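Action item from last week, closing it out:
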Amino acid sequence: MLFDYQDRMQTLMASVDVDAVILVPGANMVYYTGLHFHLSERPTFAVISKDGLAMMVPGLELAKVTARDDLKAKSFAWSDDEGYMGSIKATITALELGNKKVGVDGMTMRVFEWLALAEGGINLGTAKDVSESLLLQRAHKTQPEVEAMRKAIKLSEAALRDTIEFAKPGMTELQIQEKLVDALSEHDSDAHSFSPIVLTGPNSALPHGLSGERVLGEDEFLLIDFGGMKDSYPADITRTFCLGTPSNKMREIYETVLAANTAAREKAAPGVACKDVDKAARDVIEAAGYGEYFIHRTGHGLGLEIHEWPNITSINEMLLEPGMVFTIEPGIYIPDFGGVRIEDNVVITETGSESLTSYARDL
């Protein structure tokens, strides 16, 4: 087992002023239990308290819980024929939650789940949204988490090298994307962090554009944003290329973004505010006269979710701490011309920061 889930649950309960925390399927349930369930019309709950873990699951999912002796979980199951309300009421009664103060993941729990808990006996008047406590704990990565991301990044960079060796002018964005997807599989990626983005020419000015049938020209930008996964943890890498001869304007834009990326990576360290890392990148781009074309934050946290804490924005005063992992991805996007983004994955160390990504930053 890679991760100590009992320790994670104990740390959570020591940090929140509630008697129990109720989670629904998603990154938080995975973080605290290692259990993967679909967020669907069948309600599934993890109940974490100082007494341990209880799971309320559809009967067809019960085997996932019973196979995990390390969780020491109490199990409550329901069938499609019975419906879920009886099981919810039984769970709340058995755990004596009716008069206790309960915390929930307000960013993930849906209204029908919230109302079902109320019908089952939870006192919603004393319930508390603990989503920020969950995100803050997850923001501090342990060494096994960082190592999982190192593996994801290593295989992703190998897949990118294969893809760039394959790509050439005359190919469509979708053809290059298909090669990237195949290369990730060949390098043993468990999954994709998200659907890979491959954009060419003017399309590269769309930060989250969709790959299509546009053909890559001789002397234009090729932007690739993608990531593989290992042990549930992702890479998130962007590089921008020109497979021909870039114009002077293309070089100027690229060098400006590279300087912004470098400035932000050099700024990142323990005790530095997220907004100051954003400022380090933004100042470079504004000084070069491209400020209006930098239209998003400098980065975001990286972990079980591709976007989590800490957010590297101009208004986030959170101080960076050792173990935090996030992206640094400044960009310049000029409509009808093209765009450049250079994205690295960074971890805060005791003395500064380390770039987990090492793929060449060359146009």
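Closing note: The two ends are 41 Å apart (CA to CA).
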